[in-house]
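seq/struct pair 1
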Amino acid sequence: MRRPLHACLLWLLLASGPAAAAERDFVVVIHQQAAGQMKVTSADDGHVSTDLSYRDNGRGPDIRERFVIGALGAPVEYQGEGRATFGAEIREAFKVEAGRLRWTSRVDRGDEAVEPGTLFLPIEGTFAYSGEVVRSLLRRPGGRAPVVGGHQLSVEQVAHASVDGPDGVVALVLVALTGADTTPWYLWHTEDDEHRLFAVTWPGFAVIAKGYESAIDTLVTRVTQAQDEWLVAMQKRTARPLPGLTLIRGVRWFDAPAARMRGPSDVFLRDGRIAAVAAPGALDAKPDQVIDGGGRSLLPGLFDMHVHAWGGDGPMHLASGVTSVRDMGGDNAELQRLQARLANGDVPGPRLYTAGFIEGKSPYSARNGFVVDSLDAGRQAVDWYAARGYRHIKLYNSIKPEWVRPLTAQARARGLKVAGHVPAFMLAEQAVREGYDELTHINQVMLNFVSRPGDDSRTLLRFTRIGDDAHRLDVNGPRVRSFIDLLRRRRTTVDPTLVAFEGMYTQQQGQPNPSLLAMTDHLPVTWRRSLRVAEMDLEGPKLQTYRASWQRMLELTLAMHRAGVPLVAGTDGLSGIGLHRELELYVQAGIPEAQALRIGTWNGARDAGADGYAGSIARGKAADLVLVEGDPTQRIADIRRASLVIKGGVAYSPAQLFEALGFKPVVEAARIDTAVARP
């Protein structure tokens, strides 16, 4: 009988005999708090073992790897196992032998001929494995090598640093790895002949050699600079200013407040604003450039009202027609820095609005913004955000229920609205009555009806309780109707983020993620394998139960909309293209296409306090616009067919941005023609 590949590899690795080994310990630090560890053991014969585990926000991965480094410095055997962030099993293996690479995982398997030195990227690999890939590339001419899937990986040394710690001063080089994702991966390696992995750092997160934690801020600053340099170069390549007067001729346009398509009309832009909307040919204006609107629809720029922003997401947002986003919890210093860079037009990306994050201190704390251990500290955090012009604060899972009323009262006194998760051991109805202006995530709303006494929503129970029990809920029953009426009377906004849960409650391991299914043929090659990885292990009766619970979530969203509860569209993760699916899910739930578009434009602008500036197409409003091939008020899927995006008088080609990120464009770019010279 043939032994399974992963079992054979494990036997080979364990039976290979003793060899001299060196251990390296890494610490995982999340927002200045130790959150886990990674242990790497390397033997002289090329065998490497890795054990990675960390926790943030009550969840995190546990991954164990065993791999072998071959003669060319590339991993040639691999076995990984463990649990992913939301508990799904990890099981993956590969082996290179006699010019062929064979792999198997929970979701796929393959067997293909490869040239010597070809690299393979596991779906759920550790930082240590990525470090070995970088070491291999640093030894190769040009720093390049083929990767399974038909693309290439490449590395570039982009910065240097020296850090001091228990083993003395260590010289480091920052390496940018491209080809693995839509944006470069940045890794710190020792600047010597060994080029050992030393750290991976970005704002709010670090994996670093133990004893060198004091160097994190320095390393994060330099990584941020490197990413800025990459983004600045992209902005120079892709941004096209629209000087003088621009005419979008004969275009249908979406009247967002009225939720209906109008036109065709001529839309004139000047100095980053909408200058006029007129009947075709009514104005003899002699524009400087002309864009043909025939057969196209012009939409206000989309609003994603639930992101966790970082600079690398900016091009994806713009490529998808998202010209404004609201951050719902990140590193305060980095957010303010990024907000200024975006406002100045230094880097490509949407307008950034921010909600001030406040979390209570507990073993389950998410460590963004402020983590407070007293009501007074929470009040100080509210004032910190108020002084810096924030419009919202976001309360989180570990806030004590008795703090909600005084914190919301102080926020309102300072002119701020309160949004967020419902604190543990509290129900959504209580949070609304205590002062919440907005509930984030459909699961937080659903927990109001399915939570049991003693349920701790700081854990994964906030997801599994719904999957197990929500299918029994009567969405038309009196308890649900009474709660929805409370939301309507108080004008409490709900940010469902359905796209964050669709795969979690409906995807079977090995089947495509339904949230990305429409984009399958356009995704970067390295995304396509992960498309079949589910966050939870759902099989048999459990899969059917969770899918039935998902239907109740859609029904609840529709019931709130029909009752007049204000909804805003957010994604909580999948930048740009995720918002398309969010709006599509509203339509799937039963909300008409035009109303879904209104939620994704006008409702977002109002909630962000930007409706006097953006969110609709009208004279004097910001020229934040999306030109779409087709009519998404008739076919919501057309929202993906953006051929031009304009943000404040600067035009971007979605096709060009997508290509720069490794995506296959959806449609060709709309032409911008220079008008005939004036006499």
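seq/struct pair 2
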Amino acid sequence: MAETTLTPGSDGPTGEPGAAAPDRTEATRHIRGSTVLFAGRMISLGLNLATQVLIVRLLTKGQYGIFAYALAFGPAIRTVISVGHQEILTRFLSLYEEDRRYDKLFGTIAMKVLTILAGAAIIFVGLVSLRGYLAGNAIDRPEAIALLMVLMWIAPIEAIDDVFESTFAVFSKPRAIFFRKYVLTPGIRFSFALVLLVVGGSVHVVAFGYLTASIVGSIAYCVMAWRFFRRQGLLEHLRLRSLVMPFREVFGFSIPLLSTDLIFISMNTLSVILLGHFAGVVHVADYRAVFPMARLNSLVFATFGLMFTPLATRMFARGDREGMRDAYWHTAVWLAVFTFPVFALTGPMASATTVVLFGERYENAAVLLSILAVGFYCNAALGYNSLTLATHGKLSYVVKVNLAAAAVNIGLAFLLIPRLGALGVVVGNAITLILQNVLNQIGLGKRVGIPIFDRSYARPYLIIAGTSIALAAVQAAADPPLPVSFALVALASLAVFVANRDVLAIGTTFPEVRRIPLLRRLAASPGPAGQ
């Protein structure tokens, strides 16, 4: 998040004073910061994927199932003890910094850390108390509960890291986030997994290695934050007796928005719990091996949502409905086209991707990856529907849709998992993602004025659908060798891009790319959207 005022000790804008100069400076810093974080995210993605592949190959299927089962609790624990989104914390820290309310700024940081530690302690005590019951009833491998007692501590460590990350974001320090979040911890985990692949190691050694990497990264964040506050002169404002912890102000805003996390928790954690109970750790291993690959279909969507938010906000403020309609569907097509290469690998060509990454043992998991990829790709290809509803003040509708989708996902999990195992999980998740987006699209039409589907943008979606069907047919009929499969994906992705180049006009929605020489001609590609 770009800062709105100069922080103590920061460099001010150069040139003559005036209203325009600070705006340009802030915009430039925002773009550079977003670029740094995007580059870091790509590095982290590569390291995390490589680490997962090494661990899957290192452990037996049963051992990986145990590890994945215990690790799957992390996101749910992290969400509960954090009591809200990281973006909400950034919002309040920005407001307090702008108003020079350092008593509230430091008080909010202390409040969040204490809340996280207290919540983690309560959950740990609860797990200890229920350990005997869970080991005998929750899953067919009792050692998974013992491993959970270790890996659960990653959640509070990462939650505290989010507090530091929000602080660095407020003070425009993306390089600190880049090093700690995207390089240090993923790098340690990858190095550790690489060593274990050579010398060997048990699932317990892998778990302690994961936890150690998180601890090292958190210590690094603490040191970096202390040095930053001292260098900026902010420690002069830190007085323990005068700290103000705005519980009602922060939590009153964040708790209602926890509904947005319910769907992910039901997909990522509850489904794994039920899968472990009804089907066993082998089904958990199959599901958790392919889940991160399927979520890659959300990479472009998640990364560039930050750029779409101010665009939607400005158009809403101007009452520009026609502009909002065109910008929405133009952006949705952009997401659909540039996410297609990932979808082609994880959807139509899931069989080749699964085997090359995880080996023949996980060949049966390819169908899981394919179905789950369809759900995540539909979520990305339909655009920023929930975000657009929120920027137009329709937050209550978004919350209702999220609650309904979470309820459907939970119901499908109880219905399908006992009968179908891991296949039931991915079918339920895909249905949930598609249903959520359909409901949000209906909300756009009725509450914002954006059509559920804009026929003027039908051609790109038809091209993508036809290309996907063709790839799936080739895979099913010929089962080509891996190099041929990946070559077909590359050619299909290029064909989809070229066929839709006149529709994309990237510079219309993301004018920042005009600053990048290699993309300048692409951003200026002729042809109005939709033609």
